[in-house]
Design a protein that fits this description.
FAD/NAD(P)-binding domain, 425 residues, alpha/beta, FAD/NAD-bd_sf, 13 helices
Length: 425
């Protein structure tokens, strides 16, 4: 039997669940197809404050508060030899409602969102694998296979299709959409969950800690009172040149750097090691007459500033707005101008983080970032970016422009103190 819906969404992560909730609440008939059985492990565990309003609109904020997730009040960056620390507090310059968020174990966080989608009236096929899609004159047809039904292929029809399949980028690959060239080196992340990791004291216990290495970086994300997510990021070339297993690589790098050794001295692993390699990509086109790409399905650059879930939620809200407007106007396709506006909005959103990522990996720009007390309100501008503000006011933007200007100057003339990564004691 071919079931009919207004919107079909592929992927049940934050982007898929959020768009499904918003559209179902608006009165549309929504179906969501997810290939994995929940809960399941996923990386991307540190939220940003500028996603808070969306989480409240989705109706899950109170549930997140009751779930025991670690409150996140800020972020910090430290050199691998422990010689320099830059600590940010969201309360320093962010308005009420943005001064804290959460570090989340994605298995539970994603399940909370998906369950809220079902409570909102979304039809869920899970686990189910999408096989194909065909676009007709008035509707599209999605073919899928539910687990446990052998080789049976079912069909459903809808007016719009939202791809929220993350790095699988199912629709973009099927349509062979062109990618933007990415000038960043290919990188690799090795990560796991641990207990016994040394935490910060006091209110900073829930901070995400980024440890800058000479040729990469590490993250420490406290997920609850016991569990900490720890990951190492280096270039693919560095990772492969010694032919080490993920565990050998992780333990060697951990032992080479004072800050890592200090934090991991009494740690023991709770999960397998996971590896994600060559993860940077951006699609040039993220919208068509009847489809939109959301979150990581539209592109992913780098995890350094924890932008993944925030971009997923903000793109989900934007996609829901586009579909709802078309539905209210009794339109069943997006005009070319609407496709271009959506694509530009997604590119602008990711572009804010792309600039920050380039800054982080440039040694001279990172020296500016680590200046303890920068003048002219630069710290407030940087903090807004770290909090996930992709639409800053002019008051914030000019400080950000000035910050990047000083980075440019320091690339040419050494105007701030140099950073040393020497491990000598």
């Amino acid at each position: 039997m071919n079931q009919s819906f207004d919107v079909a969404i592929v992927g049940g992560g934050p982007a898929g669940s959020a768009s499904a909730i918003l559209l179902a609440k608006a009165g549309l008939r929504v179906v969501l197809v997810e290939k994995e059985r929940f809960p399941r492990f996923h990386i991307g565990e540190s939220l940003l404050p500028y996603a808070n309003p969306i989480l409240r609109d989705l109706g899950v904020w109170e549930e997140l508060e009751a779930a025991g997730f670690m409150p996140k009040l800020g972020a910090e960056f430290v050199l691998s030899n422990s010689s320099s620390l830059q600590r940010f507090w969201f309360s320093d310059s962010l308005p009420a409602g943005y001064q804290r968020t959460f570090q989340v174990e994605r298995a539970r966080f994603d399940s909370i969102l998906l369950e809220q989608a079902v409570r909102s009236g979304v039809t869920l096929f899970c686990p189910a694998r999408v096989c194909d899609v065909s676009f007709g004159q008035d509707q599209l047809t999605l073919r899928y296979q539910e687990e446990g039904r052998g080789r049976r292929v079912d069909e459903l029809s809808s007016f719009w299709l939202l791809d929220a399949t993350g790095r699988d980028a199912w629709l973009a690959r099927r349509l062979r959409l062109p990618q933007e060239p990415c000038p960043l080196p290919k990188r690799c992340a090795v990560y796991a969950h641990f207990a016994g990791v040394r935490r910060n004291d006091g209110r900073a216990e829930g901070h995400i800690t980024i440890v800058r290495l000479p040729d990469g970086w590490a993250w420490f994300i406290p997920l609850d009172s016991v569990k900490t997510s720890v990951g190492l990021v280096q270039t693919v070339e560095t990772f492969t040149q010694r032919r080490e297993t993920p565990e050998e690589f992780f333990l060697r790098v951990q032992g080479e750097h004072r800050e890592l050794s200090y934090r991991m001295r009494h740690a023991h692993r709770l999960s397998d090691y996971y590896v994600t390699a060559d993860y940077s990509y951006r699609y040039r086109i993220v919208a068509g007459p009847r489809w939109l790409l959301l979150g990581d399905a539209a592109g992913f650059i780098d995890p350094i500033f924890s932008s993944g879930v925030t971009i997923a939620l903000r793109s989900a809200r934007l996609a829901a707005q586009y579909v709802r407007r078309a539905w209210l106007a009794d339109k069943r396709a997006f005009r070319q101008s609407e496709q271009a506006r959506y694509t530009r909005a997604i590119q602008d959103m990711t572009g804010v983080f792309y600039q920050m990522i380039r800054m982080f990996y440039d040694p001279k720009s990172f020296e500016v970032f680590m200046v303890p007390k920068p003048p002219l309100g630069l710290r407030q501008g940087v903090l807004q970016l770290l909090a996930g503000n992709t639409e800053p006011s002019f008051w914030i933007r000019w400080r950000v422009w000035l910050f990047y200007g000083i980075c440019w100057l320091n690339q040419r003339w050494q105007i701030v103190p140099r950073l040393s990564y020497s491990q000598a004691r």
